[in-house]
Design brief:
By secondary structure, the chain is an alpha+beta fold. Helix content is 31%, strand content 33%. The protein contains three helices and six strands; from the N terminus they run E-E-E-E-H-E-E-H-H. The protein has helices spanning 56-69, 95-103, 109-123; strands at 3-8, 24-30, 33-40, 46-53, 79-84, 89-94. The longest helix has 15 residues, at 109-123. The protein is globular.
Amino acid sequence: MHWHDYRLSSKPALTGHGEEKAKYVILSTVPARFCIVSFIDLDGLQHSTKVRAESLFEAAILAIQAFKEQDCAPGSASTLEVEIPRPSVKHTVPVRKVHEWLDSNCKSPSEKLTKERLKKLMVS
């Protein structure tokens, strides 16, 4: 099963009535890949972990969980760097945006299942 790869839109789109649409856009469906997720804590120490994920936000959530297990979870003001080694691509996402995405409305039944699974990880 492949999930959609959600990335933050630089500008929210407007509907015909002037209302903002979701701030996330579906870019593509991607297979699971190994990603290296890292952040720098308040003491200036860099923490990194390797996760296998099918989307940017899934990688971020799996990494946050891994960091929690090692007692070095990033705070909500932290910024995560997600690197996909092949081809080499880096994304940065603030932890607060990860939580916003997780709490946002679902666009499809598969996204709902994904978010439910990832929410369970965040509370464990």
